[in-house]
């Protein structure tokens, strides 16, 4: 008897407009590791105007300029009910920077214009007077040290009912003020960390894959992956100047 084929559907949100500083590497990492864990990942790219896929196991979105956020905002509102339902149902999601901001309530630009978000994260973002740029390290009990690179003007403040993804070790994080970084709500992760994030933080990639597999198939048996290169990349990233 042949083994059951376990397909995982990975949906990349707005790769044409929201995908900078290596964010595409997050998708590549999930595709690769899902395969290593014995699953059959398939990738669907969703861009403005496309038909939203009927089934989603993992949703991944990247960062972009304010102009990219403006381009996607109307379409994002159109698919918002579906995205909220997926988040409520525990679908694993990873949203970086610009889309992290729009998965909150809004992003208010330097000129005072509001780009509407969809409120999955109870959070709001206001463009600050300076860009927050550089290598960043945070710490989370669940994922250990998280390393990456940030570049944003937005300062994000998460409501008190939300859990940050990590506590700041170095860098600016959500807003440069309260020592928090990102947000973790149900299985949706929002974070400012580019770099890309997942190649250097495989624990987060495996979290997304494990939650998705458990939700779809009821179980997940991880493969032990030899992460020598990821460990080396983390070691170097941790030592690099801000
Ligand atoms: N435009 C947003 C900001 O600067 C998002 C930037 C990004 O995605 N890197 O805050």
Structure explained in plain terms:
The strands form two sheets. A six-stranded mixed beta sheet has the order 2-1-3-4-12-11. Strands 5, 6, 7, 8, 9 and 10 form a six-stranded mixed beta sheet that branches. The longest helix has 23 residues, at 66-88. 45% of the residues are buried. A hairpin with a 5-residue loop joins β5 (106-108) and β6 (114-116). It has helices at 24-36, 66-88, 97-102, 197-200, 202-217, 228-239, and strands at residues 7-13, 40-46, 58-61, 93-96, 106-108, 114-116, 123-140, 144-158, 166-170, 180-181, 183-185, 188-191. The protein has one domain (3-239): 3-Layer(aba) Sandwich (Rossmann fold). The protein is built from six helices and twelve strands. The structure holds glutamine. Glutamine is lined by residues 20, 63-66, 69, 97-98, 151-154.
Distance between the termini: 54 Å
Strand order of the largest sheet: 2-1-3-4-12-11
Output the number of helix runs. 6
Average pLDDT, to the nearest integer? Answer: 96
Which CATH-level-2 architecture?
Answer: 3-Layer(aba) Sandwich
């Amino acid at each position: 008897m042949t083994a059951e084929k376990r397909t995982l559907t990975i949906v990349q949100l707005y790769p044409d407009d929201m995908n900078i500083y290596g964010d595409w590497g997050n998708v590549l990492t999930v595709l690769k590791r899902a395969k290593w864990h014995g699953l059959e990942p398939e990738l669907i790219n969703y861009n403005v105007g496309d038909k939203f896929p009927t089934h989603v196991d993992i949703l991944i979105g990247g960062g972009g300029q304010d102009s990219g956020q403006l381009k996607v905002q109307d379409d994002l509102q159109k698919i918002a009910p579906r995205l909220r339902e997926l988040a409520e149902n525990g679908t694993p999601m990873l949203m970086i920077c610009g889309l992290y901001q729009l998965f909150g309530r809004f992003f208010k630009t330097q000129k005072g214009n509001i780009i509407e978000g969809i409120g999955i994260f109870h959070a709001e973002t206001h463009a600050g007077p300076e860009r927050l740029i550089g290598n960043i390290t945070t710490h989370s009990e669940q994922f250990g040290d998280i390393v990456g690179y940030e570049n944003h003007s937005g300062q994000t403040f998460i409501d008190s009912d939300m859990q940050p993804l990590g506590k700041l070790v170095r860098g600016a994080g959500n807003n440069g003020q309260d020592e928090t970084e990102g947000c973790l709500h149900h299985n949706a992760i929002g974070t400012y960390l580019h770099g890309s994030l997942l190649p250097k933080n495989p624990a987060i990639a495996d979290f997304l894959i494990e939650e998705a597999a458990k939700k779809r198939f009821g179980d997940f048996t991880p493969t032990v992956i030899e992460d020598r290169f990821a460990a080396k990349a983390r070691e170097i990233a941790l030592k690099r100047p801000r």
